[in-house]
Specification:
alpha+beta; seven-stranded antiparallel sheet; globular
């Protein structure tokens, strides 16, 4: 029995470690939250029974590992997670007669802020609990964060970077490619906070909500947690919503939070209870993982038993075919639900789903329907051998830790929608008014077969204006946008074609090498393309294979007849020819790094995403920064110049 328990501990440690890395560091999900919590509790129980805790156990480590692209910094003291319970009575008994502060447990990314002399000096993510990522520049763009405060001593506080549900929906709606949309606000927030480009962070409407004051130099708060919160509010911080509770009032307070959670605009996955008496809480000490001054309360999932009716296979724009469980409707958290995403083949197999099985379902964080458990386990779901959209052959592919089903037909209609979506996007032909949903309507109606057809939509005036969501005004606006797109640069066209591995930068590089002559570019062979610095054999092969397909050549020919190719502005002085530069950090003289990149390219230079031995210089206004790019430049002896120094020397 002891050996079996040890084997199970090893298995759970490895599985939960992979799931945690996927969720926190890579913003993807390989098992459901419900399943993670269940397995975590099983592991904790086995560790307690056996006394065996393996290195790397998630019960002893917190959060994700800091990624390489951001500078790392060790926290002054470990940032421990909280012990948790779903039992309301256990939460009440935990108080032991002491008053406490009950607040939302926010679902975002934990940040530690340090202020000195009234100014934000440093912002560091939680990271793995001991080492975090320095994101000070990004934190300065948080929409509600005070950059200057009245308090002049050193102030250290912790809080959650969050993105509200309305902002999450708005940002996702602007991403036309369905596959590229974010699964939930936490994923979006994590990716936004840890950006290398803080312009992106600024556009994401990230908010900071304080939940703990670590230190305020010279201040006496009378041993009161609530006094600390009030002080932070006085300094201009948004502080987590909270209420002071006792054993007599806590159950009513929990019920009030439960009523409000569905309407609360900030994602929350539970509550936090912290002793009001600071000294009392600190006197209780800590375990290896948990402090004893606080405890987390997670919403007890409302489970409903139902019957699985079918698995619906939903084809995406990349060929990925997602399984969706359709079940007998049930009431969950006040709404009727009848379907839940199963995410991928691995999760479907793990649940051993079969048509007619009795399953339990719940809403993750009281919002997203999920399957909790399969009570029958008949495991009789057959994976479709043909795509539900085009009827083409399907295959199962292993991608990282999960297996997924894909359509292998390159001419699949779902993929056509993705191709057109890229074609009309901002960096390509920049045609407004053509969302993915609109393109899907046009394709299914037979208006579009190839890119050139977009320039003849006037043939379908009556059909388009009679479509839902379209009127004469929107139709005329669309035609005007299409007409405007006829005047375009060649790099935009090359990128718009959607050739594998040809992004915006590569399209510019190829066009510049062939003097912006499309015919020369189309005739180039692998050897000639591969010799271009920065291209390489993979990109060259993909490009040549695309151009060797007769249907593609014909498609390009028809498209070029519709366009008026504009000359790319090239500076007369090509003083940067053959030189490579790297640009990082925020800029003052240029609206964005792309603007400076365009100037460098117009003078014959090249901008890369990393510092190498061939880099002429690194442009970074924060020369003293301990970023990975600055470190690399110093190691290689590459000059680090401010924006002004770069302009004075090269422009």
């Amino acid at each position: 029995m002891a050996a079996e328990k040890l084997e199970r501990i090893k298995e759970l440690t490895e599985l939960l470690g992979r799931a945690s890395r996927a969720y926190y560091a890579e913003d993807r999900e390989i098992i459901s939250n419900y399943e993670y919590d269940r397995l975590y509790d099983e592991l904790a129980r086995l560790e307690q029974e056996t006394g065996i805790v393996l290195a790397g156990s998630p019960t002893r480590h917190v959060g994700y590992e800091a990624v390489e692209e951001l500078p790392k910094e060790a926290h002054e003291s470990p940032m421990l997670s909280l012990d948790k319970t779903k039992d309301r009575e256990k939460l009440r008994s935990w108080l032991q007669g002491q008053p406490a502060v009950l607040s939302w447990k926010l679902d975002g990314l934990t940040i530690v802020l340090t202020y000195r002399d009234g100014k934000l000096a440093k912002a560091v993510t939680r990271g793995n609990g001991e080492v975090g990522e320095v994101i000070t520049g990004n934190a300065r763009t948080f929409m509600n964060l005070p950059i200057n405060i009245g308090f002049r001593g050193e102030l250290v506080l912790r809080g959650e970077a969050v993105i509200s549900y309305p902002d999450f929906e708005r940002i996702n709606s602007q991403i036309e490619d369905v596959d590229a949309r974010y699964k939930n606000p936490r994923n979006l927030c994590s990716g936004s906070v840890r950006q290398l480009n803080n312009e992106i962070t600024a556009r994401r409407q990230v908010r900071f909500v304080a939940f703990n004051l670590v230190r305020a130099e010279g201040m006496d708060f009378g041993n009161s947690r609530e006094a600390q919160f009030s002080f932070l509010e006085e300094q201009g911080f948004e502080v987590v919503q909270r209420v002071l509770v006792t054993e007599e009032t806590i159950l009513e307070a929990i019920e009030d939070f439960a009523r409000r959670v569905e309407e609360y605009e900030i994602p929350s996955d539970g509550l936090v209870l912290t002793y009001e008496d600071i000294a009392y809480g600190q006197s209780l000490g800590r375990t290896a993982k948990f402090p004893r001054h606080s405890i987390a309360f997670k919403w007890a999932d409302e489970l409903r038993e139902t019957t699985l009716k079918e698995i619906e296979w939903s084809a995406s724009r990349t060929g990925l075919i997602n399984p969706v469980a359709i079940f007998e409707p049930v009431e969950l958290e006040g709404t009727t639900v009848s379907r839940a995403s199963v995410h991928n083949i691995s999760i479907l197999r793990g649940l051993r789903l079969g048509i007619g099985d009795r399953i339990t379902v719940y809403k993750a964080n009281m919002i997203i329907p999920q399957i909790a458990e399969n009570l029958t386990g008949s495991d009789n779901v057959e994976f479709p051998k043909t795509c539900p959209v085009c009827g083409g052959r399907t295959e199962i592919r292993q991608v990282a830790d999960a297996q997924s089903l894909y359509c292998v037909n390159e001419d699949c209609a779902a993929k056509k929608i993705k191709a057109f979506t890229l074609f009309v996007s901002r960096d390509a032909m920049n045609i407004d008014g053509l969302s993915e949903a609109t393109l899907e309507k046009f394709l299914s109606s037979g208006f579009l077969h190839e890119f050139a057809d977009l320039y003849h939509l006037d043939r379908y005036h009556q059909e388009i204006t009679s479509m839902e969501g379209f009127g004469e005004k929107s139709y005329q606006n669309l035609l005007a946008s299409i007409e405007k797109s006829r005047e375009v640069t060649l790099p935009q066209v090359v990128y718009a074609l959607g050739i594998a591995n040809i992004g915006v930068a590569n399209a510019k590089m190829l066009c510049r090498h062939f003097d912006y002559d499309m015919e020369q570019l189309m005739r180039a062979d692998v050897e000639e393309l591969g010799a271009i610095e920065g291209v390489g054999e993979v990109i060259a092969t993909a490009f040549v294979e695309y151009m060797q397909r007769e249907e593609n050549v014909e498609k390009i020919g028809k498209l070029m007849e519709e366009l008026r190719i504009q000359a790319v502005q090239v500076a007369e002085e090509q003083n940067l020819a053959g030189k490579g530069f790297c640009v990082t950090g925020s800029l003052r003289h240029y609206g964005s790094r792309n603007e400076l990149k365009d100037v460098i390219e117009q003078r014959g230079g090249k901008v890369t995403g990393s510092v190498t031995s061939k880099t002429e210089c690194l442009v970074n206004n924060d020369i003293a920064s301990n970023s990975s790019k600055n470190k690399k430049a110093k190691e290689l002896g590459i000059p680090i110049l401010t924006e002004e120094e770069f302009m004075a020397k090269y422009l």
